[in-house]
Amino acid sequence: QVQVVESGGGLVQPGGSLRLSCTASGSAFSSYHMGWYRQTPEKQRELVASISRGSSIIYADSVKGRFTISRDNTKNAMYLQMSSLKFEDTAVYYCKAVLGLSASWGQGTQVTVSS
Are 69 and 83 in contact (CB under 8 A)? Predict the structure, then answer.
């Protein structure tokens, strides 16, 4: 069972960019299905993007063309490159690692888009 930690959040102006990282401890990272989720006080946690162990990718419609998910199995890491950020991208972003019926969540990293 991996443990995951997010980093890279912060304050950014609309139109700006940020890169989030999720690093995993434990073994067999390459076998995990990984995903980025986000949550605000007003909304339930929602999928932003996911990447399978075979690198199949899914994006939420709201981030298509602006966000890019990737993984580096040699570094036990997953990334989310966020560009053209909008006010509505403000949220706590969480990393999730799934293997079979097991899932691990990170503590989240805050992304605030504000002028």
Answer: no
